[in-house]
Specification:
Length: 255
Amino acid sequence: MSRVVLVTGACGGIGSVLCRRFVEHGDVVLALDVGTHALDSLVRELGKEQVTPVAANLEHPIEAAIESAVELRGPVEVLVANAGAATGPTLETTDAASWQRDIQLNLTGTYHSVEAVRASMIERQRGALVLVGSVNGMTALGHPAYSAAKAGLISYTKSLAMELGRYGIRANIVCPGTVKTLAWQARVEKNPQVFEDLKKWYPLRDFATPGDIADAVWFLASPMARVITGVALPVDSGLMAGNRLMAAELTLEAL
């Protein structure tokens, strides 16, 4: 059965694939992003029959921004809160302004996204909230403001699951590790071997693609996950499981 799915950050490397995945499964997507040109391109690619663009900035509440799309398509049944970005890579390069930007987009922006659909989901007694976090929210891996925001999202997800479960609403968060998107291009230009160099930290010695993230999100939004809520799911090639090289040094054993 077709559902109405709101995807934020819809035009990014992960967001556009998220939109495509839900369209492939017959859902109607409300694609929210800040850039109208990018949204127009996304609609042309995926088809206006199944994708409705919503141009909005998550720095502010978005109820008014999605109102006409909801009137056209129906109430949102699935929210994929995907919008996010990182600025200062270290504490030394993070100032008050960049700290606020990262918290505003990654944490407060997600709050605005949830608030835009929460009341209607409660009224209809069902809904699925899937937040896109990061392994940065689970351990220190650089980008301290971004990481603090993503850690906040994990806690927020658990609060949503606890308080909204009685209304038939599930809330989960997917935490990607390194994902091969254009966001890595600057680092690839600085070091063409960056992905090869990073493999040693990942037990599977591989990296997620946007499609891998979309598969995890789609599953958590689907009826197959009907009793799964409050979960933070790493999609990270085993990064959060531990590291063989460190274990070998700690145990002085070959692993």
